[in-house]
Design a protein that fits this description.
By secondary structure, the chain is an alpha+beta fold. 32% of the residues lie in helices and 23% in strands. The protein is globular.
């Protein structure tokens, strides 16, 4: 049974933060030490981010309104609301994005309507409310009230993968299932001024965004490219439990993001990929760069640099991750779905193209997935033996039956 991601849509709040302007606001806060000011400028300037989006409208330099809560444009001061005030805004703004992204995913999927949805899986680590986003989606979009609903909360940047894995399991258990997966993260609700390096790093990276996907094993019409969900794996690195964390404080949620994280990823990324690649025998011994696409969660520029160098990936293979980071920042769990959408929308040159996805989060947890981009509009099979680049490179190291197990490959005579 093939479980397929049939549509993938994104949404962002309208307020845009320009990185240089945000840097100057944070660097100009009165409580910063000279070291704090230098850290702000270094973190913001080296983040490889141009713009980010925020659900906090008053954080725009063009906003003028009474009773500011997060940012006072008249004085240039960043304010420090309590956790309740931040979470109250989350309940309002996140609901809008959950519904918007879900509606876009439904509208974009040929052959499926709201009445077909059997499961809803929502994801967020930046706020809580109940009845939750899963309930709000069902009510707003007129889904069947008996839809099974699940919420994955407070897992962090890797949570989109457990959500997709759950969707795949639901579809394998019920071939008629249609699972709506929606991730919304409003990281900017938790920004604050501080001399703490972790807080400064978070302020320079994190942003707000939403993504939604429809997953099913149903046979559906259409010529648009889709993503087949092949395999998932979870790995905990032997070190790093204290290097990345997400805690609840009195004035919002508090990020722990140690500068040691890129080094941990550099040292353990190959081991983290091993159980995933073991799921496809034809990939054994294949250079990582031979797999066509890489959907890497852009936790930061240095993380992408380490992954690219360690796995010997090309500049082109990192474009989806780097462009997502540049245009949107780190939107926690939603970010890797933006990267997958970028890959999905790239012009296809082969009928089937392999994708490896990775996301990192507290623990240190590494979530990975092997996917296949299937583009039915591509005329014919790309190679005489029916295999993609990865499959052809693996020739001589696979048995005939293994060929069908190469992500991004089609066994001879089988499409």
């Amino acid at each position: 049974m093939t479980v397929t991601l049939r549509s993938l849509e994104t949404a962002v709040p309208p307020t845009i933060l320009v990185q240089e302007q945000a840097r100057d606001v944070f660097a100009g806060q009165p409580g910063l030490t000279r070291l704090g000011q230098r850290l702000v400028r270094t973190c913001f300037d080296s983040a490889a981010i141009d713009t980010r989006h925020t659900a906090v409208a008053e954080m725009s330099l063009d906003f003028h309104g009474p009773d500011p809560m997060f940012y006072d444009g008249a004085t240039g001061l960043l304010l420090n609301p309590g956790t309740k005030a931040r979470n109250d805004l989350f309940a309002v703004q996140a609901t809008t994005l959950f519904i918007e992204a879900a509606a876009k995913a439904l509208a974009a999927c040929d052959g499926l309507a709201a009445a077909d949805v059997t499961h809803v899986v929502t994801v967020s680590c930046t706020g809580f409310f109940n009845p939750g986003p899963d309930y709000k989606i069902v009510r707003a979009l007129g889904l069947n009230p008996s839809v099974q609903r699940y919420h994955l909360g407070f897992m962090g940047c890797y949570a989109a993968f457990p959500a997709l894995r759950a969707a795949k399991a639901f579809c394998e258990a019920d071939p008629d299932a249609v699972v709506l997966v929606v991730s919304v993260e409003l990281c900017s609700l938790h920004v604050r001024t501080s001399n703490d390096p972790d807080t400064i790093m978070g302020s320079s990276l994190f942003a707000d965004g939403a993504a939604a996907a429809l997953v099913t094993a149903r046979e559906l019409p259409g010529t648009a490219a889709v993503i087949e969900l092949d395999h998932f794996e979870t790995v905990l690195t032997p070190v790093g439990e204290d290097s990345m964390a997400w805690n609840i404080g009195d004035h919002g949620f508090e990020m722990v993001l140690d500068s040691y994280v890129p080094k941990i990823i550099d040292e353990h990324i190959v081991g983290a990929l091993a159980p995933l690649f073991a799921r496809s025998p034809a990939l054994h011994g294949l250079p990582y760069g031979e797999l066509r696409h890489w959907a890497i969660h852009p936790g930061g520029r240095s993380i992408l640099d380490k992954v690219q160098a360690k796995l010997e990936l090309s500049v082109e293979q990192l474009v989806p991750a780097r462009e997502t980071l540049r245009n949107y920042g780190n939107m926690s769990s939603a970010t890797v779905l933006f990267v997958l959408k970028h890959i999905l929308e790239q012009p296809a040159t082969e009928l089937r193209e392999g994708i490896c996805g990775m996301a990192f989060g507290p623990g240190l947890t590494v979530e990975t997935g092997l996917f296949t981009k299937f583009s039915p509009a591509v005329a014919g099979v790309p190679a005489a033996d029916g295999r993609s680049t990865a499959g052809r490179e693996a020739a001589g190291r696979e048995t005939p039956e293994d060929a069908a197990d190469v992500p991004g490959a089609v066994a001879a005579g089988h499409a």
